[in-house]
Amino acid sequence: MLALVRDMTGDHPARPVLVLSNDPAAKGLERAAALGVPVAAVDHRPFGRDRAGFEAELLKLLLAAQPDIICLAGFMRILTPAFIRRFEGRMLNIHPSLLPKYPGLHTHQRAIDAGDAEAGCTVHQVTAELDAGPVLGQARVPVLPDDTEGSLAARVLAEEHRLYPAVLRRFAATLD
Predict the structure, then answer these.
(1) pLDDT band at 176 (very low <50, low <70, confident <90, very high)
(2) What stretches of 35-102 show up as alpha helix (H) in DSSP?
(3) Which of 19, 46, 112, 126 is an S-S bond match for 91, by CB 3.0 to 4.6 Å?
(4) What local confidence, expressed as pLDDT, does residue 40 receive?
(5) What is the DSSP letter of 14?
(6) d(CA 121, CA 136)
């Protein structure tokens, strides 16, 4: 999120209008606010299994902010198809694997366990099918013989911070 916000300056075709989290204690909220970006949180926990109620609260904040594009970054809640349809073609996500390999969780360990020579990250459009939307960009890193889940995750994260801003810039330019 910070890489995206910091990149959206100068000639960038997009500007951040809201950083929204499902965790009121998320450090990113403080960091975004310090950069002058409006922030909000909708704690998912009080909603329990009421995803529709949670998403209705998210929707109120999003509609008030009027974003042209929604960029998910570390948002670890699965959104319903109805919510996703509302922003179809305008919602992006970053995933820490070379999709379609390893959708879901524990991607780095899965790449190591499979003996993959490379791993990486993918920016994709969000669709109702988890981690299956059209791929907009990927970055690759080698899987080293002594890699742990943590060391591989750190190298992939560095690439995420380069890839996501570049893809957002390109994607936002197509909406003008």
Answers:
(1) low
(2) 51-65, 81-86
(3) 126
(4) 98
(5) -
(6) 11
Structural domain boundaries in the chain: 15-67, 69-176
User: Which residues, 6 or more positions from 21, have their beta carbon under 8 angstroms from its beta carbon?
Assistant: 28, 29, 39, 40, 41, 42, 75
Q: Which amino acid type is present at position 77?
A: R
- Active site (annotated) includes residue 106: no
- pTM for the complete prediction? 0.95
**Active-site residue, selected from the candidate residues 44, 95, 108, 124:** 95
Q: Which residues pair with 121 in a beta bridge?
A: 139
CATH superfamily of 69-176: Formyl transferase, N-terminal domain (3.40.50.170)
Strand, helix or coil for residue 71: strand
Q: Which two tokens stand for residue 77?
A: 């809640």
